[in-house]
Amino acid sequence: MSAPATARPHRTVLRLHRTALIVWGAFVAGLIAWLVWLSEITVDAVRAAEAACSRGPWGCVDVIEALDFSQPLDHVALLLHHSFLAVAAFAGGALIGRELESGTARLAWTQGVTPARWLAAGLAVPALALTAGGTVLVLAFRRVWEADRDLIPMADAWAFADVFVARGPATVAYALCALAVGTLTALLLRRALPALVVSVAAMWLLGVVLERCRPHLWPAERLLLRRESDPPHSAWLLEWSRTGTGRYATYHPASHFWPLHLVETGVVLAVAVLATASAFAVLRRRTA
After folding, report:
1. By CB neighbour count within 10 A (0-12 exposed, 13-18 middle, 19+ buried), where does 209 fall?
2. What's the pLDDT score for residue 66?
3. Helix/strand/coil for 162
4. Which 3 state secondary structure label does DSSP give 251?
5. Would you call 223 exposed, middle or buried from its count of C-beta atoms within 10 A (0-12, 13-18, 19+)?
């Protein structure tokens, strides 16, 4: 005899939140389509404009032409970076908060599904979708960003907040953290709308704090400036200073991207693990 549907929490999660998973899939597909358009259509148009302009009598304004590529790419990075806010809203308001408020969760607990198993399934299904979709988006964004780097006017664009997150696993880490924080908030508040608001606010605050702390996540380099020496062209300049021996620049070279990025990713994942453990502890205490 097959087990009842309530004994299969993973299927229940898929059924209850099918719309959210479809929206996430559409979001991933839409951003990838946009990236493909930029790399296959927009880049060719910009290159053709540059070639035609270079044959003219007045030369080219490369920066203006490149903006047709770099600005839309920045918009993609913005959406990719801040997608974790939508995840926090979903986790706090719909995934956990609504089930607790409506009594659906308690009904499942009386039908052969333990609270811990219910929560594990509720986290595992969206976590898998977020990891898979986020990984694909990061790989696609990195490919487009790096393939036509010369069309991005700012040499230190790698340090811009949205691009910094969108180019690596921090994107997935923020999404998983938002899932965990939203779940914990919903279990604490047990009401969908307040949990949604608090979850989004908490994740927004975490993002702001880490963005401000980002320059200090890895030791910066310091350079004594002479007439013939400046910080590297692609450096993320942090500050200028003057001492009795001369003028100094404190900066991160482009080679510091991965150390900075991976440290931030580790911090975000640590918060996610802590929030997940706290969520199980709160659930265990309230259902004991």
Report:
1. exposed
2. 59
3. helix
4. strand
5. middle
Q: How confident is the model at residue 2 (pLDDT cuts 50, 70, 90)?
A: very low
How far are the Cα atoms of 142, 176, 180 from residue 89, in angstroms, in the given order?
Answer: 27, 13, 11
CB 246 within 8 A of CB 225: yes
Whether 202 maps to a domain, the answer reads yes
Tell me: the pLDDT tens digits for 54-65?
665 555 555 455
**For the CA atoms of the chain, what is the radius of gyration?**
23
Residue 231 lies in a domain: no
Residue 232 — φ and ψ, nearest 5°?
-50, 150
Q: Is residue 132 part of a domain?
A: yes
147 found inside a domain: yes
pLDDT digits (tens, 9 = 90+) for 201-228: 999 999 999 999 999 999 999 887 775 5
Question: Cα(217)–Cα(199) distance, rounded to whole angstroms?
Answer: 25
Residue spans of beta strands (DSSP E) within 55-179: none
By C-alpha distance, which of 161, 144, 130 is closest to 25?
130
Range of the domain at 169: 5-216+253-287
Q: For the segment 128-138, what is each residue's pLDDT rounded down to a tens digit?
A: 999 999 999 99
Beta strands in 83-201 (DSSP E): none
How much is the pTM?
Answer: 0.88
Q: Strand 221-224: give its sheet, edge to edge.
A: 221-224, 246-252, 236-243
User: Strand, helix or coil at 42?
Assistant: helix
Count of structural domains, the chain = 1
Closest C-alpha to 156, from 69, 78, 253, 87: 253
